[in-house]
TrEMBL record:
Pfam families in alphabetical order: PanZ
Superkingdom of this protein's organism: Bacteria
CDD domains for the chain: NAT_SF
Boundaries of every N-acetyltransferase domain copy: 19-132
InterPro entries referenced in this protein's UniProt entry, alphabetically: Acyl_CoA_acyltransferase, GNAT_dom, PanZ_GNAT
Taxonomic classification: Bacteria, Pseudomonadati, Pseudomonadota, Gammaproteobacteria, Oceanospirillales
Protein species of origin: Spartinivicinus poritis
SUPFAM superfamilies per the UniProt record, alphabetical: Acyl-CoA N-acyltransferases (Nat) (SSF55729)
Protein name: Acetyl-CoA sensor PanZ family protein
Length: 132
């Protein structure tokens, strides 16, 4: 399954955002509804507003056939990239999407002279979470 991972500079102003935003919001809703995360806001807009507009967080999207199938929020602090959230849509669980996102983030962090920290992300939603 060839998955492309890239940073989105503004998830709301992208020209193709309607479908992307729906994919992102849907996977977030699935993560919140299908888990025991009671501290999470019920809507993605509320979740994203805590990072939107800040200088250091980056939103990474994983694509397959031009559809977002997973995403991550990374907060870049000094020489560390902190994984704040990682979410993979239900239909793609167990297909290595989360692992692919982590591979790309780890490589890009190393290329920037930083380390990716994955201690306690807000969301980690894939079939086998033992890889974190």
């Amino acid at each position: 399954m060839p998955v492309t991972v890239e940073v989105l500079t503004n998830i709301i102003d992208q020209g193709y955002i309607n479908q992307n935003y729906q994919d992102i919001a849907k996977s977030y809703q699935q993560a919140v509804v299908d888990s025991s995360m009671v501290d999470m806001p019920p809507e993605f807009e509320q979740f994203w507003s805590k990072w939107d507009g800040q200088a250091t967080p980056c939103f990474y999207a994983a694509y397959f056939n031009r559809r977002i199938i997973g995403w991550a929020i990374v907060n870049k602090v000094d020489k560390s990239w902190v994984l704040e959230a990682l979410c993979v849509g239900l239909p793609n669980h167990g297909r290595g999407v989360g692992e692919r996102i982590l591979q790309v983030l780890t490589k890009q962090a190393a290329e920037a002279g930083c380390q990716l920290l994955v201690d306690k992300p807000a969301i980690y939603f894939e079939k086998d979470s033992s890889k974190l």
